[in-house]
Fold diguanylate cyclase.
Amino acid sequence: MIPSVIYYSKTVTPWKESLKNLLSRVPDQFSWQGIESLQETPVSGLIIMHQSDLLAEDYPYIAARKVLILLDKWDFSLALKWIMQGVNDSAAYDDLTRIATWIVSEKARISWHNNNLAQQENILQTVLDAIPVPIFYKDEFHIYRGCNQAFSEFIGLPKESVVNHSVYDIAPKELADIYYQADQALLDSGGTQVYEAAVKNAQGEQFEIEFNKAVFFKENGDKAGQVGAMLDITERNRLMRQLDQASRTDPLTGVGNRREFNLAVSITLQKAQNAYGSTSLLTIDIDHFKSINDRFGHSCGDEALKFLVSCIHEAIPATGQVFRIGGEEFYVLLPKLDLAQAKQVAERVRQHIPEQVMTLKSEPVQMTVSIGVIQLASENMLEESFKRVDQALYEAKMTGRNRVCLAYYD
């Protein structure tokens, strides 16, 4: 006969020999192993632990083990409180007969329970395994009590490494915390729950999962636990992000479009407001761009626009963001720069662009730009800011092009 292991905390040590003597009267064999934490014990292990030895990090594991909590003085209210935490039972610290009786009865209960439920569990497991979607169910203490083959295969763990385990036994702590909090919220509210979270399998691969869960109940109406199904939405979310990015990107030049600019300027101004900083904006328009299209064709005009974007990036700070607003007009958002600093950047862009020569149909081509500059005010004044910087750009155009003009508020 293979001995059953009894795990005990340090405060129980003085009673170990007396308990061994009591248990020698029964046919079952037991071995004893001291522990510092519940994390050292196997799922469903028989554990005798004094309440003072329980660590804060032990609490998520309590219901996944068969824990007898020893109290300095047994009290019904205190015992009930511990049972609500998920312990199997409680006893007074010096009530050796009660402790020994618990060990024997739990050993017998485990044997009976395993035999009686085997057939029912086999039927349920067959049904669950026929479903191709990962499914799991947990009790009211967040302990896995079952899962199907699809769940086991998805997370890369055999069922015996899942069933009767806490989520902290099978998932990294940073993810287990998310699942545990979601489980508790569902049990508190009842009903159903749908949310998205990352899942990492045993091989370290991470997926984006939509959890669909519901509470199930005991015959007396108390909450018994929850059942959940997992939908892998990794590919769907990837495609949605690609579509969203495409909707915010100019397909020709690869920089952000007006929609992206509207999002970026709002975020940038909020950060500037929180940090009491500045944000400036350049509006850039290519001088005589129509003549490039007329002379070389629209395909060469497209190449000129891409070349211009490259030149702008070379001349602005790394924190600057370029956006194509329409046609040959571009915005450059300059976080943390005031009007004087933005003017210096604008002059650098203006001087840099004609120094760069591109070739269109074997002919060298140089471009110049006109630039309007403004230091942005608050977000609710953006329309006024855009109006004034457009006026500054118009002034640059009307006064000879290839120049920088500043915009001011009244």
In short: The chain has a mean pLDDT of 92. Residues 70 and 93 are 5 Å apart (CA to CA).
